[in-house]
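[Discussion] Sanity-checking designs against the backbone

I'm trying to build intuition for which residues belong where. Below is a structure token string of 318 positions. I'd appreciate it if someone posts a full sequence so I can compare it with mine line by line.
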């Protein structure tokens, strides 16, 4: 039987008994805990002795150590039971990056986050990660990772391999030298937990935003090639000038717009994707290093190797 919306999946009396010896400072809720980042967050929090609630629109995994709450992020009535009695909230909920649904992004990332902040205040939560709303007795900070990847990633690697299987990974857009930040999921989790613990000790961090990266910018196409060759696929080897690719994508977008009254198309070759693949976009995490002592736990070499090993089921058989 499906759990009722806003009700905990696990028996509340049993859960209270299980966590009664854990101080409130180590009680937390992971919003979006059934997602890629959220699941890794839950695992690391449990390993550090936290009592963990998970709030999501669905229950993505089963763990007897976790109290699940299923509900709508934009419903205060659904959200409140998952936040009551916890000290810290990690807000990881977001639609997948590949989604083209603007209304969904607005509803989850803006309206949903606004509701999280308001409901946290009502529930007496003291620390919120993933939002910015500095206020006395209510501490928040925003963590800004870029290009999250790692084991169980449902987006980057599966989409990349599908494209390779369909013969769509033959071209490099631009000269292949554009540096990009890809960040291993364990480092993103580490940044979140470190920020929460530091924020509890140093309230001056409240209301600030921190970039969390691997601190190793890598050429975009080099990164993709390492994933592809690690799984026995060919790396892209033909070069197409950036401006040619961009204007072709723009022309295709205009064509899609013209025919949209008759037929609905969703091309994957779009100007924004060309820009992401062919331009520089990496960020300094010096502020996180200085303010809270952040250092990446996993190097890029180790991160790529762990990721490749975790996707052996997608490997090309020679």
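Best answer:
Here's mine. Compare freely.
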């Amino acid at each position: 039987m499906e759990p009722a919306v806003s009700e905990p999946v696990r028996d509340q009396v049993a859960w209270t008994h299980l966590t009664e010896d854990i101080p409130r400072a180590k009680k937390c809720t992971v919003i979006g805990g059934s997602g890629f980042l959220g699941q890794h967050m839950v695992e690391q929090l449990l390993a550090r002795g936290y009592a963990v609630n998970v709030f999501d629109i669905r229950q993505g995994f089963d763990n007897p150590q976790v109290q699940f709450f299923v509900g709508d992020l934009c419903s205060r009535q659904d959200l409140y039971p998952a936040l009551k009695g916890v000290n810290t909230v990690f807000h990881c909920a977001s639609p997948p990056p590949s989604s083209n649904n603007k209304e969904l992004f607005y509803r989850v990332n803006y309206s949903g986050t606004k509701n999280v902040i308001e409901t946290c205040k009502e529930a007496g939560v003291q620390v919120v990660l993933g939002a910015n709303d500095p206020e006395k007795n209510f501490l928040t900070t925003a963590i800004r990772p870029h290009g999250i990847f790692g084991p169980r990633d449902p987006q980057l690697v599966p989409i990349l391999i599908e494209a390779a299987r369909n013969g769509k990974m033959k071209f490099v857009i631009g000269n292949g030298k554009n540096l990009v930040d890809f960040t291993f999921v364990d480092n993103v989790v580490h940044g979140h937990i470190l920020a929460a613990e530091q924020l509890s000790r140093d309230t001056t961090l409240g209301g600030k935003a921190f970039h969390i990266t691997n601190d190793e910018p890598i050429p975009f196409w080099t990164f993709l090639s390492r994933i592809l060759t690690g799984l026995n696929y060919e790396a892209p080897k033909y070069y197409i000038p950036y401006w040619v690719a961009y204007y072709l994508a723009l022309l295709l977008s205009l064509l899609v717009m013209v025919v949209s009254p008759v037929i609905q198309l969703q091309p994957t070759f779009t100007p924004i994707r060309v820009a992401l693949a062919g331009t520089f976009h990496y960020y300094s995490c010096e502020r996180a290093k200085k303010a809270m002592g952040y250092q990446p736990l996993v190097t890029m070499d180790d991160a790529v190797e762990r990721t490749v090993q975790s996707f052996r089921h997608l490997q090309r058989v020679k």
